[in-house]
Amino acid sequence: MQLLLQRIFDGVSDGAVYASIAVALVLIFKATTLINFAQGEMAMFGAFFAYIFAVQSGILDFLGNQYLIIWVAAIIAMVLSAGVGITIERTLTRPFDPEDHLPVVLITLGLFLGINAIAGIIWNYQARVMPAMFPNGSDDKVVIFGARLFYDTIGTIVTLGVVLYILFIILNKTKMGLAFRAVSANVESARLVGVRTGRVLSFGWALASAFGALGAVIVAPRITLQPSMMAAIVIYAFAAAAVGGLDSVGGAAIGGMIVGLTKSLGNGYLGSWHFGLEHPPLEFLPATPLLIPVLILLAVLWFKPSGLFGTKRIERV
Amino acid sequence: MRRMKKNFAALAVVAMVAAACGGDDASDTSSASEAASEEADAPAEEAAEEPAEDTGGAASEEETADALAEASEEDAEAAAELPTTLEGWQELWASERAAVVAAAEAEGWGLGDDGILVGPAGFTIDTNECPEGWNNDEGLDDGVITIGVTTANSGSLAVYGNIYAGLGAYFDMVNDQGGIGGYTFEVIVKDDEYVATKTIEAWSEFFQSTKPLVGHTLGSPNTFSVQPEFNNQCVPQVMVATGHQAWGDPVNHPWTTGYQLSYASEALLWGAWIEANTEPGVVVAGLVMDNDFGLAYEQAFKDFAENSDHIAKFEIVRHDPASATLTNEVTTLAATNPDVFISMTAGNPCVLAIQEAGRSGIIENAQAVFTPSVCKSIAAYMDPAGEDADGWYIVGGGIKDTTDAGYADDLWISYANEKLDEYGGDSSISLQGEGFANRGIVWEQVLRIAADLEGGINRTNIMLAQRGLLNFTHPALLDGIKMNLNGNEDAYFVEGSDISKYDLANRTWVQQGGTIDLSGLSPNCAWVPGEGC
Fold it and tell me: Per the CATH hierarchy, to which homologous superfamily does domain B86-261+402-490 belong?
């Protein structure tokens, strides 16, 4: 029971991380119907913005209030990342025909490699200590039936919930949100009715970049701050976004949790499940942690290609 | 839109299946690990009845235990008399080089007219078997010697690329000082992302176009992937950056040399320490990186555990080298209530293993926790691990980490850090210090010996200089640990180690007892995938 609960907590903890990046992927997809392969690297860059402000500037040493400073740093990083997102949209993707996806996908792949290399040149690949937004020491936990639930996991989930609520308000209760949804539904029609699609696309990139950066700032203390920090996480985030539905913000969050939980429970139990045999036939699972999310992704896409919470599209002939 | 989703889904699935299937290992690794796993569950009593076998790549268990016991009774401060000035060191190294050259002249070592390289202790290479057109002087064009290197410069183990930033800075310094034997040096680095297939691609390009005089590889799976080609092409694969025991095979792979303490020796020292310092019946948990590197540790320690009636159980969980987190894996190990936890991983997972061991309660409950020698760097691994890093043990391979506060006043370390910064490096980055202070000096010594041998610097003389480097006093190794190879008799440069404990408050590894000396005790290892030495 204790181990089961611990694995659930582990899964939720990892799932919250995947969800935070998956939400950013979905925002870009909603705006452009494209996958931004550079989302993880852009988020990593955002985390370095926060690091520069909080640590390299010396403010943390000077003032000493870690949580206040890192939260302020996270907000600054979100703003700067939003600016980077707008710049990328204006300079690299807007010149291309929005209906022709291939060039823009290639650009995001190029950005993935380029941003990682630039970050490596600037900050080196040696891991750095990122101040945490929530208490994250070994003692910062609650113990429930012997299982450890850490404050930073709770904090990440609460932050994710707040982010989802803010996004809900922005997308559903504001004029820009309405325009965003119109562009998301049909760029050409939105343009014909007077929506300034360029601004809306910039807004989408800004929003995704900002919340992606927030996700990276939150996870950096757990996985160490270095240019390759998001490489593995973004794969799970892709899976989470696809499972939840590529155009569903809430679905991405739930998809993240599903991926995190199945990875934790699957690796933990299937890898040691003997099936009556002398040795576990699936004991390789912990070494191939991507296998279970891949199988779930396959199953979801097979039976519900739009994802669990994605919109089923019907096109007129 | 729907088509787009399907296309993405297909792309994502293909990418993730490819990632899940890995690809870092030498081809037969999985079978090796599976076979090893089957053996792991054998009851300890049955295993204890089997006689202990000496395997290659490490001293015997008895020799290891004796050396550890002897070192435990010594004072860590006890040291041989060593030079106290840089000039004194230079004189010492010059005399050690001269001794090798004199031995070569006296014993007739070198490349004969018959095309056979003869070295110490039965070491030979028949260059007549090299490919047609092979040139002993290839890569010596225009007075510039090219050294080809493959390493991870991106990806999850990109931090290791720093070693070659440090080594490059070292050669810049050597070049500034006039070079060696009339040559200057250029280190050309290709990024293989720690992916063996990319290492093969990179070396294919090197062999066909750049044609460096010598090559160097980082990582066990990567080195395995190109070792046959190096030996077929008769190109020196020099002092590879991996401690796999397989590199001690001068008979079958004469062109390949290792460098650091072998993982097998390290694993035996873990075992010997555990037997000497814990109560009988301990459960040991191993977090193993799932590639040739981690499996080398796993197999060596498993062999030890099976022959030990002190260790009741050895629990293993392997992790993907590219894992973003190790939470699930460490939770599984924590559930076994280990008395001793050993991290058998590398790169950023070094940090994650320490942190997760703290969060899972392993540190709190275990009698001892070990991090591997490849995770010794303080700035790279111990600093980022935070408070959980305190109190970890290490079989440290005798290396002085250049960011260890305990060596701030060490003559060589302080000089190396100063010069590293002067030549464009960054002494706050541990692994740049490793490349400069630890590896650079040995490269220089080998090249200077080769330059002084008859024929000067060429491929065979570089091999001879290494195989005959009988007694090099390394300034970045702990006192009492010499670097030496001796032809076919001694194929491991470093066979000594410290056992140290991390002191977080002072940012230093505190040596526990004296230096462990296993010099010359490790038999060669003709590695067979799936079987071992």
Answer: Response regulator (3.40.50.2300)
